[in-house]
Amino acid sequence: MNSFGRIFRVSIFGESHGIQIGAVVDGCPAGIPLHENDLKEDFARRRAGGIGTTPRVEPDLPRIVSGVFNGKTTGAPITIVFENTNTKSGDYSNLWDHPRPGHADFTGQQKYGAHNDPRGGGHFSGRITLGIVAAGVIAKKIISPTIVSATLIEAGGSKDIQAAVEQAVATKNSIGGIVECVCTHVPVGIGEPFFDSAESLIAHMIFAVPATKGIEFGSGFAAAAMKGNEHNDNFISATGKTETNFAAGINGGITNGNDIVFRVPIKPTSSIGMPQETFNFKSKAVETLVIEGRHDACIALRIPVVIEAATAIALADLCLLAQQKPRIV
Amino acid sequence: MNSFGRIFRVSIFGESHGIQIGAVVDGCPAGIPLHENDLKEDFARRRAGGIGTTPRVEPDLPRIVSGVFNGKTTGAPITIVFENTNTKSGDYSNLWDHPRPGHADFTGQQKYGAHNDPRGGGHFSGRITLGIVAAGVIAKKIISPTIVSATLIEAGGSKDIQAAVEQAVATKNSIGGIVECVCTHVPVGIGEPFFDSAESLIAHMIFAVPATKGIEFGSGFAAAAMKGNEHNDNFISATGKTETNFAAGINGGITNGNDIVFRVPIKPTSSIGMPQETFNFKSKAVETLVIEGRHDACIALRIPVVIEAATAIALADLCLLAQQKPRIV
Amino acid sequence: MNSFGRIFRVSIFGESHGIQIGAVVDGCPAGIPLHENDLKEDFARRRAGGIGTTPRVEPDLPRIVSGVFNGKTTGAPITIVFENTNTKSGDYSNLWDHPRPGHADFTGQQKYGAHNDPRGGGHFSGRITLGIVAAGVIAKKIISPTIVSATLIEAGGSKDIQAAVEQAVATKNSIGGIVECVCTHVPVGIGEPFFDSAESLIAHMIFAVPATKGIEFGSGFAAAAMKGNEHNDNFISATGKTETNFAAGINGGITNGNDIVFRVPIKPTSSIGMPQETFNFKSKAVETLVIEGRHDACIALRIPVVIEAATAIALADLCLLAQQKPRIV
Amino acid sequence: MNSFGRIFRVSIFGESHGIQIGAVVDGCPAGIPLHENDLKEDFARRRAGGIGTTPRVEPDLPRIVSGVFNGKTTGAPITIVFENTNTKSGDYSNLWDHPRPGHADFTGQQKYGAHNDPRGGGHFSGRITLGIVAAGVIAKKIISPTIVSATLIEAGGSKDIQAAVEQAVATKNSIGGIVECVCTHVPVGIGEPFFDSAESLIAHMIFAVPATKGIEFGSGFAAAAMKGNEHNDNFISATGKTETNFAAGINGGITNGNDIVFRVPIKPTSSIGMPQETFNFKSKAVETLVIEGRHDACIALRIPVVIEAATAIALADLCLLAQQKPRIV
Question: Shortest CB distance from B223 goes to which of A104, A213, A281?
Answer without folding.
Answer: A213
